Every structure is written in C-alpha cells, then in structure tokens.
Amino acid sequence: MGQPYVVACEVSNTIDSVSSDDDEEEWNVMDWKIELVAVPVSAVDRAKAFYVDQVGFNADHDQQVNENLRFVQLTPPGSACSIYIGTGLTTMKPGSIEDLSWGRFVYFSDPDGNKWAVQELPKQN
Predict the structure, then answer these.
(1) Based on the structure, what is the number of domains in the chain?
(2) What is the DSSP string of 18-50?
(3) Which of 63, 69, 76, 104 has its CA 20 to 30 A from that of 48?
C-alpha cells in the first residue's frame, strides 16, 4: 500500500507592492493556490463511488472525452481544492504517494490504496 497522501489546498506566495518617485517599477501581489490534484486510480467508477458515497466528496464533473480519456473531478464539501481521477490523465501508479511527517492528521485509504491525511489546522493567535 502507498503512504499517506497530504494535499495542501492553498499555497500563497506574496510579493509586496513597491513604488517610489525615483523608480517607476512596481511589484504586484501574487496569490498562488493549488486547486486540482491528480489521484491515480485503477478503476474510475469504483474510485468515484468511494469518494462520493463513502467519503462525501461532491461529483463536480465526469466527462468521457474519447475511449482513452475520461476526466472526473471531485471536491470535498467546502474545499477550494479538488481531486481528479480518470483514464489517460496520469502515468502515476495507483497508490504511489509520499508520506509527509508534520502536522496533526486523520488517515484513510481509498480502494486503490491511496492513503489520505486530513489535517487539523493549528489555532491562529
């Protein structure tokens, strides 16, 4: 089985806005977000049923583009980050995921052995 899979749903990189009378150069603020993460699966319908019926994700999109390409987008309720599963989308082996050893997490696995870690965010002071 694969190792727990941690998804960062938002990553921010901010560049401060700088302007002066002598220098017309201005830096703009960049806000980067991770919005879609590939999850390799061996059986699309089985994985979709697991994430929707057992985990509670919303089924946002399911498109069979052609016989070799299917795209399914699923989103946890209230999340700005979705996962996608399907055929012809990735060459990653199902269940091949890295383990990150920080934070407080609850773990579960899907039918392909993709392990998930749900993170409890620390309280902000």
Answers:
(1) 1
(2) ---SS----PPP------EEE---S-HHHHHHI
(3) 104
Give pLDDT tens digits for 6-54: 444 444 344 445 555 555 556 677 777 778 888 889 999 999 999 999 9
Q: Which amino acid is at 103?
A: G
Q: Is 53 in a helix, a strand, or coil?
A: helix
Q: Does residue 21 fall inside a structural domain?
A: no
Strands lying side by side in the sheet with 115-120 = 4-6, 115-120, 104-109
The label of the residue with tokens 């998930």 reads 116
Q: Using a cut of 0.70, tell me whether the model's pTM lies above it.
A: no
Residue appearing with tokens 């990189």: 13
Q: Which two tokens stand for residue 78?
A: 């209230």
Q: 73 is in which domain, residue-wise?
A: 32-120
